[in-house]
Design goal:
Length: 310
Amino acid sequence: MATLLQKFVDADQWEAEDLVGRLGLIAHAAFLHAGFRPYGAEPPSGHLLKHAGDTGSSSRSRSYTAPQLALGEDAEAAVLMVWAAPGSVALLMHLTTDRRLRRSYRQHLDASTMAALLSRRLDDTEPWGSRICWSLADGPCWRLLVELCRRNGLPLTGFASLPEDVVLEILKRVDDGADLARAACTDRLLSRLVAEGDTELWKPLYEQMVGKGQRPWCSKCSLFLERLERAAIWKVRYRHVMAWNWLRLCLVRCRSSSPVAPPLVPSRDDFPPPPTPLDDPPEPERIGSLLNIVEGRRRRKLPVATARLQ
């Protein structure tokens, strides 16, 4: 299965570019994935226009615009510029009408850090190449597209542009609480709809879970569910039932592991993996710098990922 970067760039195009060109290809794929269309002058080969500097530096550039403006002349567009000087690489994204670059995206990167990733073949850059592409597409590229459509009175196309009642109907068809919680962590709109749609979204999941025969088999369990029924938030009820089912499964495994009596201190192997936490999602964070993503600072498995890059 092709990765995000491989959907827009093939191996021959990747091998034909140097360090600056490969970073430009990643940014080019991010623009296309965000919803832009190439605009303006076509490069003689590849996806980006090449420029040679007097001091030995090289650069790449390309213009993009919204699909509704792609057929017009002198349309407002977003500009991508990538250039390199000895020891550094720079990335710049801005709209053509933003003369003072007040809403531009600028990033300076260490050439040696980027060379550790971009000097490899296209297949060997994964998953970091696609992660950078995702970060640019969901961050600066998407913000430029939103600003471009707002200035030209164009409607945004995508899941976020759907009416809230339509998005809520889509969320109602999610039959797993863990998936619903993950969706709430991806966007402010989804986070608010999941929180406000407690009765519409979490109540059916709770009733489905309780209706599967997940009934207590002792008086203390019955007391637990009676107290649970008094909770005003359906998400809380669903979360507690999931936790109770996981605990009961642990006890069943402990009992079945010994025909005489359950062990007083069960081992870790007797416990199933814990359920996915369903706490309220945090506020979405802003996309960090490319350097942090390349170095793996945004990932928990930092040592392994960094060692592979080096």
